[in-house]
Design brief:
The chain is α+β, with helices and mostly antiparallel strands and about 70 residues long. The protein has one domain. The protein contains one helix and four strands, in the order E-E-E-H-E. The protein is elongated and about 40 Å long. About 10% of the residues are buried.
Length: about 70
């Protein structure tokens, strides 16, 4: 798979996603599966991973978390 931004090679890896929203607070989600460009470093998430992140955001919103660090593992 090639990077849509620079044409570099994409490799499976893990990343950390940080979400800072007024309605949720600060979320740090570690160990997130991503495809990472070996040339420019751009990270791409699958639809499934994005849906999992959205579920974490909604849970944090319901719990009224201000700061939360979780691992997807």
């Amino acid at each position: 798979m090639k990077c849509a931004l620079c044409g570099g090679n994409m490799k499976a890896g893990r990343t950390t996603v940080t979400i800072d929203r007024a309605d949720v607070g600060l979320l740090v989600i570690r160990d997130v599966k991503a495809r990472i460009c070996q040339q420019c470093g751009e990270e791409w998430l699958s639809d499934k991973t994005a849906a999992q992140l959205e579920a974490i955001v909604q849970r944090a919103k319901r719990q009224k978390a201000q700061i939360e660090v979780v691992a997807m593992g």
